[in-house]
Amino acid sequence: MTNTEAAVEVNGLGRTYAGGFEAVRDVSFRVERGEMFALLGTNGAGKTSTMELVEGLSAPSAGSVRVLGHNPFTERAKVRPKVGVMLQEGGFPQDLTAAETARMWAGTLSRPRPHGEVLELVGLDHRANTRVKQLSGGERRRLDLALALLGRPDVLFLDEPTTGLDPESRRNTWELIRGLLLDGVTVLLTTHYLEEAQELADRLAIMHRGRIVTTGSVSDVIAAHPARISFSADREVPALPGTRAVQRQGVRTTVHTGALQETLTALLVWAQQQDVVLHGLDAREASLEEAFLAIAQEAVA
Ligand SMILES: Nc1ncnc2c1ncn2[C@@H]1O[C@H](COP(=O)(O)OP(=O)(O)OP(=O)(O)O)[C@@H](O)[C@H]1O
């Protein structure tokens, strides 16, 4: 493998299920080594169907997938030792304890981390002797992640890794993922938590009905959507440069702008000159969530 080769390269990918339903259509993206790439989308958009092809669990109906330079389906033996996979549903034997599950899994790997170390990494060391069936949903999710990390993967596939986790466990998982990224691990993630993608991802793609409708860096995707300035004033505000839309609700005004700094400066200069107090002034870029909702609506329209 050369150093310029992507960790994951997907070209013109398609997946058609029995009965002819096309769940994935002409999907292409690259995940560079050491990068975190997030695959986002509405329910049923085709994220899991895409992830399963990248993980080599099925062969695509069209297009190609390379993971670390290999076809993950036909060259599974070459790819498998270097990747960690966290599926949406882990499905472990219910009567084993967390430690036994990790030990059993480690037995299938060539260079496993000590199982105690991975349980500690995901904050499950105090539950090591608890049977899987007695773990909470969030604890099982963390056990899934522990198993994905056991083989010291170069590439990690995470399908909704923090679903069902409480806010503190979610933040701890983010810290853990950040640490892995610092160590040079490549991460391909799907999530419904846009804050998670905004916090962690270098680049992302948004899928809708089997296709990628937007892709780019998090800041590029956000920058394409208007920023927002809101305030309450006892006087009507004049037209401000850069404004795309103005909403008024009672005394509260919200200005949507494509040029946050320019619009905000004009507003503040006007307020200063007119001696107007802007109560509750709040100015911010669009969040990834707002961008996502706008993109999903546009895609439906
Ligand atoms: N085995 C299957 N046979 C037929 N259709 C399937 C099969 N698996 C998934 N689908 C369909 O393919 C589409 C994409 O499903 P997929 O699970 O990939 O979406 P997703 O983006 O991961 O959704 P979610 O966010 O809800 O997990 C859905 O319409 C789903 O009903």
UniProtKB/TrEMBL annotation:
Residues in ABC transporter domain copies: 8-234
InterPro entries (UniProt xref): AAA+_ATPase (IPR003593), ABC_transporter-like_ATP-bd (IPR003439), ABC_transporter-like_CS (IPR017871), ABC_transporter_ATP-binding (IPR050763), P-loop_NTPase (IPR027417)
Principal location listed in the UniProt entry: membrane
Gene Ontology CC annotations of this record: plasma membrane
A GO term for molecular function: ATP hydrolysis activity
Entry membrane topology: Peripheral membrane protein
Record has Zinc as a keyword: no
Protein's cellular compartments: Cell membrane
GO process terms (BP): response to antibiotic
N-terminal signal peptide: none
Keywords on record: Antibiotic resistance, ATP-binding, Nucleotide-binding, Transport
Protein name per its UniProtKB record: ABC transporter ATP-binding protein
Annotated organism of origin: Lentzea tibetensis
